[in-house]
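Researcher: Structure for this, please.
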Amino acid sequence: MNHPIRFADITRLLDLPSLESKLAELNTTSSHPGFWSDEQNAKSVMSQISRIRSSLDETRQLESQIKSLEELKVLNQEDSDLQLASEIQILDAQIEKRLARLELLTFLSGKYDKSEAILSIHSGQGGTEAMDWAGMLSRMYQRYFEQKGWPFELVDQSPGEEAGIKSVTFIIHAQFAFGFLQHERGTHRLVRLSPFNADNLRQTSFAGVEVTPLLDETADIIIKDEDLEFEASRSTGAGGQNVNKVNTAVRLRHLPTNIVVQCQTQRYQEQNRKIALQLLKAKLWELEEAKRLQELSQIKGEHKLASWGNQIRSYVLHPYKLVKDLRTDFESTDPDSVLNGALDQFVEKEIKFFATSNLVH
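Model: Predicted structure, token format:
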């Protein structure tokens, strides 16, 4: 398929008019008096404006490049003395790369695929080894976010006693973040020579990754005040000036489900409470989604879901080097690069695999 036709098909699926309409709506909101009175909401709106504008600029630039390429091809046919073959080849490769990136977005058509995301990592059984592995995964995902140019914030972290972390939670403020990350959910396994015992024995460690969409105010998840148990405490962290002298950390328990969430990274209690409510809303959505998928599996026949209890990827550092996704069978023999954030190929394979299989999300 030639580039103009392919570009037209992709942009039709992405529904650019709705993006332009959303941008106009957000711009109107940002111009209202008192817009910055709610700083957190204002930042969220401005972030959305930036992301949508960037997406629209990307498509316009790509459209311009495609037109330039078509013109170069015509010129080259009319006058071969111009020797434009090399320039055409370079531009063609650039366009192909950009089209592939846009095309990937067309696979993300789920209800929440365009949403920002919450990603949490929890160490599995195995004490220090597992906590160190959870810390390695935390670093891997942060590098991935940085390489994608996705703004993110750490909203809660529980450090390990000797090394690594017990758990960590990030909010990723990027359009389609949930769509890209949703299939990272599950158990990740590490095999390596242990750096924590004198015999340097081979050790297997596990950590779990949870991914949920960051739900907006219109989501169908209702949290009643009477269902919440609220607790405030001093945020933990580094010593000296960084220690909070007031109770800014927030811990919420949802009494009907006994789900507990907490946030301690913001300077003010109200900001931490707002983020904790977002985390709780995402947890409740996850609970409802699990029920829905369970019902669906009974209707359509049993199939394996990318959930907490299922191992999705192995990272082997000894006796050989290999990272393998157990669902798509995609492999890399360069685990060092993967652990440094080179996840694009794994994520793209997941998106296409789940979009073209009979598994729904």
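Researcher: Any notable elements?
Model: DSSP finds nine helices and eleven strands in the chain. Residues 238-246, 302-308 have pLDDT under 50 and may be disordered.
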